[in-house]
Write a structure and sequence with these properties.
The structure is a single chain. By secondary structure, the protein is an all-alpha fold. Helix content is about 80%, strand content about 0%. The chain is built from 6 helices and no strands. Helix 4 packs antiparallel against helix 5. The longest helix is centred in the N-terminal third of the chain and has 17 residues. It starts with a helix and ends with a helix. About 20% of the residues are buried.
Length: about 100
């Protein structure tokens, strides 16, 4: 669980540095919605049948209108096989932002 905090803290610090905490928070809300309500989105993130490179490419295409920071954040979670912690990281980020 310590890594969840580190991911959230890093994302928060980068958002703060870019002066876009509110924007990132809103877009994370959308990512959370997609994860919870769109089975295909969640499946791409959690399946082992798709390799990391392909998952990242799918996510980049799916989140085209999102801030690059969000896309990079999700890509890093995919790369390090941490997508099952996505919602926890988002919750910790929101706690820091509020």
């Amino acid at each position: 669980m310590q890594s969840n905090y580190k991911y959230a803290k890093t994302l928060f610090d980068l958002s703060k540095k870019s002066d876009c905490i509110s924007l990132i928070q809103n877009q994370l809300k959308s990512v959370s919605y997609l994860y919870n309500k769109v089975p295909a989105f969640r499946l791409v993130l959690i399946t082992r049948r798709i390799n990391s490179e392909n998952k990242i490419e799918i996510i980049k295409n799916s989140l085209k209108g999102f801030e690059p920071l969000i896309v990079e954040f999700v890509s890093i979670l995919i790369q390090y096989n941490q997508t099952n912690h996505l919602l926890n990281v988002i919750t910790k980020f929101n706690n820091m932002a509020n």
